[in-house]
Amino acid sequence: MSPEQFDILVLGSGASGKHVAWHMAPAGGRTAVVEWEHRMIGGACPNTNCLPSKNEIWSAKVADLVRHAAAYGTVTGPSSVDMARVRQRKRNMVEALIAVHMERFRASGADLIIGKGRFVAPKTLEVRSDGKTRVLRGDRVFLNLGTHATIPDVPGLPAAGPLTHVEALELDRLPGHLIVLGGGYVGLEFAQAYRRFGSRVTLITRAPQLAPREDPDVAGALLQIFKSEGIEVLPSAQPVWVQGRSGDHVSVRVRSPDGEQTIEGSDLLVAAGRTPNTAGIGLETAGVELDARGYIKVNDRLETTAPDVWAMGECAGSPQFTHAAVDDFRVVRDNQAGGHRTTRDRLIPFCMFTDPQLARVGLNEREAKSRGVEARVATLPMSDVLRAATTGETQGFMKALVDARSDRILGFTMLGAEAGEVVAVVQTAMLAGMPYTGLRDAVLTHPTMAEGLGSLFAKVPARSTR
Ligand SMILES: Cc1cc2nc3c(=O)[nH]c(=O)nc-3n(C[C@H](O)[C@H](O)[C@H](O)COP(=O)(O)OP(=O)(O)OC[C@H]3O[C@@H](n4cnc5c(N)ncnc54)[C@H](O)[C@@H]3O)c2cc1C
Ligand SMILES: NC(=O)c1ccc[n+]([C@@H]2O[C@H](COP(=O)([O-])OP(=O)(O)OC[C@H]3O[C@@H](n4cnc5c(N)ncnc54)[C@H](O)[C@@H]3O)[C@@H](O)[C@H]2O)c1
Description:
Blueprint: E1 4-11, H1 17-24, E2 31-35, H2 44-47, H3 50-67, H4 83-108, E3 111-114, E4 117-121, E5 124-129, E6 132-143, E7 147-149, H5 165-168, E8 177-181, H6 185-197, E9 200-204, H7 216-228, E10 232-234, E11 238-245, E12 249-256, E13 259-265, E14 267-270, E15 274-276, E16 309-311, H8 322-336, E17 350-352, E18 357-362, H9 365-370, E19 375-381, H10 386-391, E20 397-403, E21 409-416, H11 419-431, H12 436-441, H13 452-458
Helix pairs in contact: 1-4, 1-8, 3-4, 3-6
């Protein structure tokens, strides 16, 4: 079968791939985008990951506010959570987003082909779509394959049919006792949401603290917040075996420095990291090499080991955030136009949508220490932020790192309400090269959470004169 010829061939319609198509097709390049499934059009962010999880987390916030409404002077009757309605609200959003994506593909002129792509020769894909086999060849090929939830190698775990975030977001019932395996982003966001919906929740993580990449004081404060909501947390706990079926009854044997114990629950959610979608699709036939962890080898321009083939987003080992994957597209786009943009030295913030949110940009103390960077550190409890006093959201704190020898801001962490918004203020100052004194002395709106930045930066210790 002679291949159908395209100028631009995109495999995966995620955060980077869709932008490649939407940018290049209107410019006149004959463009095809191959996407595995209709329900994944636009990638994981709008369909199974960021947006649906934040949608249900918001429903959990509403449940929590209703539960505590009396503290604010609103007296309610008994309340309950209807997970079928929670799910329907989420589904409505996802379906609307798929429609928006399909319209953008149509308007761009790109050919959106639904089916699993597999390389049969360099720059040549075979796709089974609508019962037909198509062979597509691109002059330039862009890979945006994403990742899926890793199921750790624990005896009995696969047979227990655990939930991942994908199935958890499709539940129309409330688990009686949800056991969460993993204390990173997914585990923390889902553990708190399900607790607020009304489940008993036990979180097991092999790391010694929640949010393992964060500073111990941040993780400690988060742990206290989780405990105060009744979430049981087992740190430094390694699962030994699993028995039973998630959705019915499941037992997890865990080993920790305190000994072994068996946790009994109704459902099991695995949130133990990600595996790239790079296996079994003929990448070796295409000359695209993988690293030891299965991620596509790329240079800082996101060029793979195969000529005229680029990889973007999580499959290329980029930071696992939608905004990083979108920036990967911008790196590739600008270089296609003759630019010299790289993935080096990007300032990539994050926000974990626990309540309160945990957001960070730049270095934390742990990273500064490991890189031998000397920093001046200031912290401010959220209870000192006047906006927090008005809303009652006084949990958590802000922390700033400023260079020991100059007034350059090195990093900012916030565990507090609206942290995801406040971090953007500090990021903007960092991008502009503004000294910390600029934020310290700025006239910020009263009473906002960002106003706290003035008090925070006023606490930065003076530079040592030594
Ligand atoms: C539960 C959860 C919540 C998250 N929340 C956030 C958040 O709040 N903020 C944030 O920034 N990040 C969040 N993330 C991370 C974020 O979802 C990803 O980093 C982001 O979606 C970027 O993904 P990507 O573009 O690399 O790949 P994807 O979006 O996964 O795109 C890859 C696409 O390729 C398709 N595909 C793969 N292989 C093939 C093949 N062989 N043939 C055809 N199609 C194929 C897939 O179906 C998919 O649509 C979250 C992750 C999870 C798991
Ligand atoms: N708000 C956001 O931006 C957001 C939300 C969700 C996910 N994400 C992205 O998705 C990525 C994946 O999230 P994740 O939570 O799956 O991974 P993660 O890397 O954030 O956390 C994995 C956790 O699982 C634990 N773990 C791993 N193997 C284990 C085992 N065998 N037994 C017990 N514990 C084990 C680790 O110690 C860690 O606590 C994140 O790194 C993040 O970049 C982002």
